[in-house]
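REVIEWER CHECKLIST
Item 1: Sequence provided? yes
Item 2: Single chain? yes
Item 3: Sequence as submitted:
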Amino acid sequence: MKVETKHFGEIEVAEDQILDFIGGVPGFDGNRYVLLNSSNEENSPFVWLQSLDDTNVALVLLNTFMLYPDYAPDVNDEFLGVLEFEQREDLAVFSVMVIPEKMEDMTVNLKAPIIINNKNRKAIQVICDNSNYEIKHKVYGDLQTVIDNNK
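Item 4: Structure as written out by the authors:
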């Protein structure tokens, strides 16, 4: 199906690309989304979560483990159960980013990860029980460190 988007113009979305967000994404209408690559880089830690129900909605997501390999959100098994996954390897974990005009102030929400079952395309955003993860975790310095280490 073809979808007109605010940031990407018209895009073609195959049925098997559509994510079904159980309960929707908090703060937004609809439950159908698609992941779009942020660049031509295959190993980019960033993707866009584009709503198919409100095409003005597109959120930047961070592939959390690419930047924080020790990230270990404590999520209630009841929430994960709705994803109907067979193996934890079937799950992808992302965090919503906020990128303000001043890049140094960008944050990532480590407290409420988005978890996607790559097999059946079901997704959910949950609040993890870890008290050490923040809703507005400053991420700019961590990104700079990774970029500097990869030079």
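Item 5: Key structural point noted by reviewer: The helical segments are 64-67, 77-81, 140-149.
Item 6: Recommendation: ____
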